[in-house]
Amino acid sequence: MRIKPRLLKRWQFSASVFAPAVLLLAITAAAVVGFVLWSTADVDRRSLLRQTELVRNILAEEVAKVPRAQESIAIWDDAIERTKFKFDKDWIDNNLGIWMYEYYGHDHVVVFDQDDEPIYTMSDGVSPETTLFASERSLLTREVAAMRALIASGALQTYVNGETAKLPQVVDLRQIGGRPAVVSIAPIVSDTGDIAQEPGSEYLHLAISYLDEEIAAGLGKRYMLEEAAFATERIPSSDHASYPLASKAGRFVTFFQWKPDKPGQVLLAQTAPVLAGTFLVASLLIVALVDRLWKSSAALEAERMSAHHQATHDALTGLPNRTRFERKLEEVLASCTRDGTQVALLMLDLDRFKKINDTLGHQAGDDLIRAVGQRLQELLGNGALSARLGGDEFAIIYSGKAAMNTAADLARRAIVAASTPFVVAGSEVFIGTSIGIAVVLDGDADRLEVTRKADIALYEAKSTGRNRAVFYEDVMYELLQSRHTIEAELREALRGGDQLAVAFQPLFHCRTGTISGAEALVRWSNPRLGQVSPAHFIPVAESTGLVEGVGDFVLRGACELGARWPGLTVAVNISPAQLRNPKFSGRVFDILEESGMRPDDLELEITESILLEDEDVASAALREFRRAGIKIALDDFGTGYSSLNYLKRYPVDRIKIDRSFVSQLARQSASSAIVQAMVTLAHALGIAVTAEGVETHEQVDILREMGCNTLQGFLLATPTTPALIEAMFRDQVAAPESEARLVAEFA
Ligand code: C2E
Ligand code: MG
Ligand code: MG
Q1: How far does residue 521's CA lie from ligand 1's centre (Å)?
Q2: Where are the domains of the chain?
């Protein structure tokens, strides 16, 4: 399955833009979440440290409260008297025992005598008590012993002497009956100092206060510690914190547990939804941004593609333009060098396109070009590309096998396609195409060289009849070179000097043999090329615009002669290029006026081709000349289309039967029949007939019999200089009898 290119592009775009954007967002999100989690945890950790410190202090205070309460009754003369000197159970209950329970919440009180025998016991407000001493007596003796040791060390004596302010006491934590408790022992001493006791004989007061739920709850309430409790085991929960309490000997007694305040967690719970919302919005923004970016980048891409297409394609036909054509040609020529692929280049130029463009308008011209482009496109096969190079020029590049045959086939089909009628601007039009072909079968070839060759072949195709294809041959190049030389030399000759001259060939009346006039023929003698025939250089002059200079030169020479010999006709050859110039007729009239020649004595020789190509232009000019009295002759008659229609439609005074017919003349030949028909027809239309290239007496006889009006040919006179032709004119005017001699010569 093929992935659609747009989809693929979108995927690539996402990979290059969307992925980094998402990655960035993810990294940012992870960093923010990580930071928030870390900082809230840190806040919680610090808060726990603070709370633990608080717990440590309040527990120390809780423990210290027991000896402090004890101190208030142990330093008291009455207490010594009522316990040691005169045992008073009631008094002890009310001041040292039950009272301690009721006022300070001490759970047990024991008073020991000097032999460490208990003389008073109290538990939970009841005295004497029975349970504690049954189970814990031995435990208590440790504290009692510790107190005695302290007294023995003299600590009490320094207090009694007033050397220290603090009554020595033994305070510790321990488990009693599995319950954590504060145990405190103090010696009962005089507050006034009035009762002196023998050191070591002091009675001892022991107070025990359990660290129970009530105390924990009270602390929790006072210090805002949630779920505060004493426990012998830790609550296995990350929600709870615990602080261990141990005896002085390091023995574990209890845990104080509570649910610590977690400000970080609270903060997190409050900020998490905001953060999540922010990320959601940021994600949506990024998605929207990327989508927008994709759309604008897609639009840019489309614009770029269209600009590229415009730069490499012709707007009218949609075919590749010259730029792309040149690049493509270079490509295929490179592959020709690389792997021997054959290449053919066909250059096409439409025939008669200009005429349609001029007559039907540019819109029709555009439609026609478009239609041609389409037809060309349709006939292409594999390995071929067509292009429009501009105007009515097209090209086809083929690369592949059998380039020669394929090119010939393509050319044939292109000619058929172009000569099949087109309908533009509502009318059917006929064009054709000339094609020049250059083929590269192997080896290196340069684009410019191949293009030049195809152009030369195209030129050849156009100048040898049009609507045809011509393969390039080297001889064409040589021909072109020689044309270039002729052009350059002729241009030079036209600048001045005496290279150009006008020769005159006389024409004779067929019946009388007298001179009717002369035809002016251009002569060119070039120092490098020698004598150049007009048949050679006139076509070059026509295609390069030089023919007007040549034409003016000849016309001037002819009119100068004609002005001096009124009554004799001087004929001048006019090329189609001259006639097409709208200023031409004005120039003819100017020269006539300058020279003083009568228009009636001037004859312009034109060929059929001009009538074929530019009917309207030609006929308008011809009518203007005829109105002025100038005569028109159709030269080389019989070689072109010889449409007898022209004779009827155009103002022609004379036809000049081409010498190819005259040279074939013999009695009973086909040519004779044709010439006879031409003469008869021309006469029927009131048109005079001249036979060109008369070389034999037999031809003279036949032509005379046929009723031809005038004759021209080497037999009668060759083209000659103005001086000699004037001499001939003079002879005839001076001695008309010599006319008889000439007639005799014809016979
Ligand atoms: P064209 O107008 O048919 O002129 C007659 C040509 O036939 C002349 O050749 C002339 O020398 C030649 N010719 C005359 N009699 C005979 C003959 O008996 N046998 C043979 N074989 N040839 C004969 P040229 O002067 O070489 O001119 C050739 C063509 O060049 C002319 O044919 C004409 O078409 C053109 N041309 C000559 N001069 C001019 C000019 O001034 N302007 C233009 N536009 N074309 C000219
Ligand atoms: Mg002529
Ligand atoms: Mg001729």
Answers
A1: 6
A2: 5-57+263-310, 75-210, 322-472, 483-746
Q: What is the mean pLDDT of residues 336-353?
A: 90
- What pLDDT, on the 0 to 100 scale, is given for residue 740? 43
Residue nearest to atom 45 of ligand 1 (CA): 573
> Which ligand is located closest to the Cα atom of residue 553?
1
Q: Which residues contact 234 (CB under 8 A, 6 or more apart)?
A: 240, 242, 255, 257
Fold classified for 483-746: TIM Barrel (3.20.20)
- Cα 673 to its chain centre, rounded Å, is 74
State the Cα–Cα distance between residues 729 and 106, nearest whole angstrom: 174
Q: What is the pLDDT of residue 236?
A: 76
Using the mean position of ligand 3's atoms as its centre, give its distance from the Cα of residue 512 in Å: 23
Averaged pLDDT score across all residues of the chain: 89
Lay out the sheet containing 118-123: strands in order across. Answer: 118-123, 108-112, 204-210, 179-187, 170-176
Predicted model pTM:
0.56
pLDDT tier, 743 (very low <50, low <70, confident <90, very high otherwise):
very low
Name the pLDDT band for 121 (thresholds 50, 70, 90). Answer: very high
User: Tell me, what amino acid is at 581?
Assistant: N
Nearest ligand, measured from the Cα of 639: 3
CATH of domain 322-472: 3.30.70.270
For residue 636, give the ligand 1 atom closest to its CA: 3
Residues with CB under 6 A from ligand 1: 505, 521-522, 533-535, 538, 551, 554, 573-575, 605, 635-636, 659, 692-695, 712-714, 719
Residue with the larger pLDDT of the pair 437 and 136? 437
CATH architecture for segment(s) 75-210: 2-Layer Sandwich (3.30)
CA distance to 79, 511, 548, 603, 623, per residue, from 556 (Å): 170, 31, 12, 13, 22
